[in-house]
Write a structure and sequence with these properties.
261 residues, mainly alpha, Single alpha-helices involved in coiled-coils or other helix-helix interfaces, 2 domains, 7 helices
């Protein structure tokens, strides 16, 4: 996943977490009365502040991430144990689970998720009893699993899209190289054909023209010594001239395909 997509993913998950935090805050403010309300607001504000700056903390060291999740877990535990008991505050484990998937390797994430599940279950069971605590705990865990699965699916989709774009760019580059190779092959074939025609021109036509030159010189000498043999030499000259003309036409016809591109 590219940095731009990672930034969009972080912003999207942060927005979802802040929405969850807002819902919990409204529920806590309307549920708690007196001093517990002020404590709940302070704890929720601290949770929201840490949650908002988590991308900056994650860019530092690995131990900063561990410290962040430890502090957030402690805040959720304190919120969950305020009296009167508020079961809804345990939903704050869900945004932390999503952040854990983005911050750590699978082995470390598994440890954090198991810790969240145990703390969630124990808190709910102590606050609501076995039946109600297990039921609500399973419901919150299912919601967290769905959220994490959606985030993983989104990340995989983005990674596949980025891979497809890279593959498309490589295919386009390969296609361009093939076109260049094809053009070079055509030029090489044309050069070879020109060389072949040049050899034919030298081997056949030039020899015929050389023969025409010798025959014309012989006809000039015979014109002075034995004029009766001159017509025979002229006939030979016509024959040789026609042969040379025919070969030149054939070579010119073969040159046309090379000139068309």
């Amino acid at each position: 996943m590219t940095r731009a997509r990672q930034a969009r993913s972080y912003r999207g998950n942060t927005l979802i977490g802040l929405i969850v935090l807002g819902v919990v805050a409204v529920r806590a403010i309307t549920f708690h009365q007196g001093q517990p309300r002020l404590v709940a607001v302070i704890l929720l504000a601290a949770y929201g502040l840490l949650y908002a700056v988590e991308p900056l903390l994650a860019a530092r060291t690995r131990w900063t991430r561990f410290l962040y999740f430890a502090l957030q877990t402690a805040l959720v535990l304190v919120l969950a144990n305020l009296r009167p008991f508020l079961d809804f505050s345990n939903v704050l484990y869900v945004p932390l689970s999503v952040q854990a998937w983005q911050a750590f390797s699978r082995r470390v994430v598994f440890v954090w998720m198991m810790l969240f599940a145990v703390l969630l279950s124990v808190t709910l069971i102590l606050g609501m009893g076995w039946a109600g605590g297990l039921a609500l705990g399973l419901l919150i865990l299912a919601g967290g699993a769905f959220t994490v699965s959606y985030d993983l699916l989104y990340a995989r989709t983005q990674a596949d899209q980025a891979e497809s774009q890279v593959l498309l760019a490589e295919l386009q580059q390969a296609h361009q190289k093939l076109q260049e190779y094809a053009a070079q092959a055509r030029e090489l074939a044309a050069a070879r054909e020109r060389n072949r025609l040049a050899r034919e021109l030298h081997d056949s036509v030039s020899q015929v023209i050389f023969g025409i030159t010798l025959t014309s010189q012989a006809a000039r000498l015979l014109l002075e010594r034995d004029p009766a043999q001159v017509p025979e030499q002229i006939d030979r000259l016509q024959e040789m001239t026609g042969s040379a003309l025919s070969q030149l036409r054939s070579l010119i016809a073969q040159l046309h395909p090379l000139q068309d591109p």
